[in-house]
Automatic annotation (TrEMBL):
It comes from the Bacteria. PANTHER family: GB|AAF24581.1, GLYOXALASE-RELATED. Residues 7-124, 138-256 form the VOC domain. SUPFAM superfamilies: Glyoxalase/Bleomycin resistance protein/Dihydroxybiphenyl dioxygenase (SSF54593). This is VOC domain-containing protein. It comes from Stigmatella aurantiaca.
């Protein structure tokens, strides 16, 4: 089934050391890294063996003065990149990278929502193309997309108006309010929550599937990651861990407990 406008279709790691990142994610998620054909920027692709699911590139020199840290970013499909960027900016968002063409890949732009969370919008070069970078049940793929915002209600309104995302179920989180599930075309693909720490900026975080949460978490810490939380049980009988990779990018692991 082809991806629809509003789907997450790709994930990208901005880092300071491509080689170290390839070794780390290869050990933790089983990804194989290879250079992207025709890339003059050292872009690398991460794959599961079946398909490519993510990419990695060094933080652009142009972003160094801004203090951009290593991070994971997601790509959201749109029908018209230029129009989407114009609407996002008009709604109070920001354009960080103008619409750009990559031959044979597609057209994309980096933007920020009105609260500052960064993401990309993209239209692929292949009509009717299907990305499985997000897959709610496959190990090695992103299984959950989570946004932490200072004003969740405003964030939900923004993303709903631009991408058609809808409110799903919700879990109460006490003083933090609800952990609000996000639905798109009948599928729950992630959630929205209030940023628990005022010092941290609004941001997207992505949880990648593993076959054994304890083994993956142990491997991550052994390979130099910092464990920030978990493993913690979540609804559905699965567990999550939040880690910071050796270069400083934060991401999540999600999967069952085998013990």
């Amino acid at each position: 089934m082809a991806n629809a406008s509003g789907d997450f279709i790709w994930y990208e790691l901005l880092t300071t050391d491509l080689g170290a990142a390839a070794r780390f994610y290869g050990a933790v998620l089983g990804w194989r890294a290879r250079s992207a054909d025709g890339s003059d920027k050292g872009y690398r692709l991460f794959g599961t063996g079946e398909t490519d699911v993510a990419g990695s590139m060094e933080i652009p020199v142009s972003q160094s003065p801004t203090g951009m840290r290593p991070m994971w970013l997601g790509y959201v499909a749109v029908d018209d990149v230029d129009a989407a960027v114009s609407r996002i900016v008009a709604a109070g968002g920001a354009k960080h990278l103008p619409p750009t063409d990559v031959p044979g890949v597609g057209r994309f732009a980096m933007v920020g929502d009105p609260q500052g969370a960064l993401f990309y919008v993209m239209r692929g070069a292949v009509e009717g193309g299907t990305s499985t970078s997000f897959h709610p049940s496959k190990a090695g793929h992103c299984q959950w997309n989570e946004l932490a915002a200072k004003e969740p209600t405003a964030a939900l309104s923004f993303y709903g108006s631009h991408f058609g995302w809808e409110k799903g179920d919700a879990m109460p989180m006490g003083e933090l309010g609800d952990y609000q599930f996000l639905d798109h075309h009948g599928q729950t693909f992630g959630a929205l929550m209030r940023q628990p720490t005022e010092a941290l900026p609004p941001r997207w975080m992505f949880y990648f599937g593993v076959e054994d949460i304890d083994a993956a978490t142990a491997t991550a810490t052994r390979e130099g990651a910092k464990l920030l939380d978990g493993p913690s049980e979540v609804p559905g009988g699965i567990f999550t861990s939040i880690v910071e990779d050796p270069q400083g990018a934060t991401f999540g692991l999600v999967g069952p407990r085998k013990k």
